[in-house]
């Protein structure tokens, strides 16, 4: 068994690349099923900041090629771009990467809370499509438990920071105070709701909520004591508000430079602050070049996130120790799955080789008496047992769980234990 992680994130690829791979749920289900012949279990994670595949397989080269071809349908990349943007982890490194992602140690904004829910949703999606089985369930449940432990035992939990709070911090840099500032939400999903709560806490109280779905905009508008609007009417209201947050799941920009210019004429020199957390982006980048327009997309939040990194070094060190301990526990569990079958497969492989060589010998030396034949065959069995005894005892008695897992993996690779021996 090989556990691998393959993908790209905010550190390796710009939003202009990541947004091309923000696949719809129905597309994800089809994609996962297409990977079934090459992988026992697969989880696909797609967020604003990352696109990642976690898989359990034997021949990961074929699986990666299938993934690349699948993604190529949505955004063709040159081989040089693939090498530049994508990363690959295997074994211990892959486990550590998953645990860091789930615990928000790999996020653009350290400690943000949304990522754990997104990882859980990705795992649920894979489970419902039949692509996440018992091994992946054990791995991801351990990752979820670790994330909870990091939140409860480090300063990351006591100093919550999210993409939403960063957006509000940027707004404060521009307006100083958010009291009496009018806010337009384009999109009524989780990101809009969470950011609106931060804005309310910062003093904002006048909201317009625009969304394509009537029920969603009415529910959120009711919570905020705001006004529900259609998406088109919301965009037309930009000239009347100070802050615009867009988080629409849509495949093209809905706010053009021309629409922003129209809003500026109404505002008569007053600044317009726009946070575009949509992936793909909801606002044309050219709108950010207009005077008195402050446009930030998801990548622009990294500067604020970096400031938080410096304040949380102690929390990161403690969180990494928690991850190390929990990965050790994961290896202990995996050993029960991996070590015993490896030993069994190794014995079976060598026994098949012994039997083949014995048949060849028997066929060539037909004049040997039966008693001597039995003695020679007994000798081959005893010799095989002696050769395997010390390595297997050493493997069983290794005190380090990670070493046991890695030794088991190495034996599988060295002796091709997943393949039938050639006849």
Residue-averaged pLDDT? 86
Beta-strand fraction estimate: 5-15%
Flag low-confidence runs: none
Number of helices: 17
Helicity, as a percent range: 55-70%
CATH level-1 class of the largest domain: Alpha Beta
CATH superfamily of the largest domain: Glutamyl-tRNA reductase, N-terminal domain
Give a count of the beta strands, DSSP E runs of length 2 or more. Answer: 10
| Termini gap | 24 Å
CATH fold node name of the largest domain: Beta Polymerase, domain 2
List its traits.
four-stranded antiparallel β-sheet; Beta Polymerase, domain 2; 17 helices; Rossmann fold; 423 residues; alpha/beta; 3 domains
In short:
This protein is of the alpha/beta class. The chain is 57% helix and 13% strand. It folds into three domains: 2-160, Glutamyl-tRNA reductase, N-terminal domain (Beta Polymerase, domain 2, 2-Layer Sandwich); 163-302, Rossmann fold (3-Layer(aba) Sandwich); 334-414, no CATH class.
Textual characterization of the structure:
- It is a single chain.
- This protein is α/β, with parallel strands linked by helices and 423 residues long.
- It folds into three domains: 2-160, 2-Layer Sandwich (Beta Polymerase, domain 2); 163-302, 3-Layer(aba) Sandwich (Rossmann fold); 334-414, no CATH class.
- The protein has 17 helices and ten strands.
- The strands form two sheets. Strands 7-6-5-8-9-10 form a six-stranded parallel beta sheet, sandwiched between helices. A four-stranded antiparallel beta sheet has the order 2-3-1-4, sandwiched between helices.
- β6, α11 (214-224) and β7 form a beta-alpha-beta unit.
């Amino acid at each position: 068994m090989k556990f691998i992680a393959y993908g790209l994130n905010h550190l390796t690829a710009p939003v202009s690349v990541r947004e091309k791979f923000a696949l719809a749920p129905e597309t994800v289900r089809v994609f996962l099923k297409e990977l079934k012949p090459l992988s026992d279990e697969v989880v696909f994670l797609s967020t604003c900041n990352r696109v990642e595949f976690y898989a359990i397989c034997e021949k990961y080269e074929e699986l990666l090629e299938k993934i690349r071809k699948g993604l190529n349908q949505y955004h063709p990349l040159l081989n040089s771009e693939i090498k530049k943007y994508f990363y690959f982890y295997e074994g211990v490194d892959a486990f550590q990467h998953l645990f860091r992602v789930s615990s928000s140690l790999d996020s653009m904004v350290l400690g943000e809370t949304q990522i754990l829910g997104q990882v859980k949703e990705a795992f649920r999606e894979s489970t419902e499509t039949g692509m996440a089985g018992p091994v992946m369930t054990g791995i991801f449940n351990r990752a979820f438990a670790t994330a909870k432990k990091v939140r409860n035992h480090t300063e990351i939990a006591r100093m919550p920071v999210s993409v939403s709070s960063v957006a509000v911090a940027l707004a404060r840099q521009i307006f100083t105070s958010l009291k009496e500032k009018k806010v337009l939400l384009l999109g009524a999903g989780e990101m809009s709701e969470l950011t609106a709560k931060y804005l309310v806490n910062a003093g904002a109280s006048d909201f317009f909520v625009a969304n394509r779905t009537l029920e969603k905009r009415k529910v959120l508008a009711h919570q905020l004591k705001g006004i529900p609007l259609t998406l088109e009417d919301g965009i037309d209201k930009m000239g009347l508000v100070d802050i615009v947050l867009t988080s629409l799941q849509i495949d093209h920009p809905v706010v053009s430079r021309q629409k922003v210019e129209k809003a500026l004429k109404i505002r008569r020199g007053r600044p317009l602050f726009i946070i575009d957390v949509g992936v793909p982006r909801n606002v044309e980048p050219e709108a950010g070049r207009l005077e008195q327009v402050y446009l930030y997309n998801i990548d622009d939040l990294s500067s604020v996130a970096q400031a938080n990194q410096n304040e949380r070094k102690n929390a990161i060190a403690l969180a990494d120790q928690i991850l190390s301990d929990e990965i050790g526990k994961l290896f202990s569990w995996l050993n029960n799955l991996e070590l015993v079958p490896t030993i069994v497969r190794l014995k079976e492989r060598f026994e098949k080789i012994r039997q083949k060589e014995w048949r060849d010998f028997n066929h060539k030396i037909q004049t040997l008496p039966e008693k001597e034949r039995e003695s020679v065959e007994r000798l081959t069995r005893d010799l095989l047992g002696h050769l395997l005894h010390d390595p297997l005892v050493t493997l069983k008695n290794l005190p380090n769980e990670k070493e046991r897992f890695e030794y088991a993996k190495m034996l599988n690779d060295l002796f091709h234990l997943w393949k039938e021996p050639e006849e």
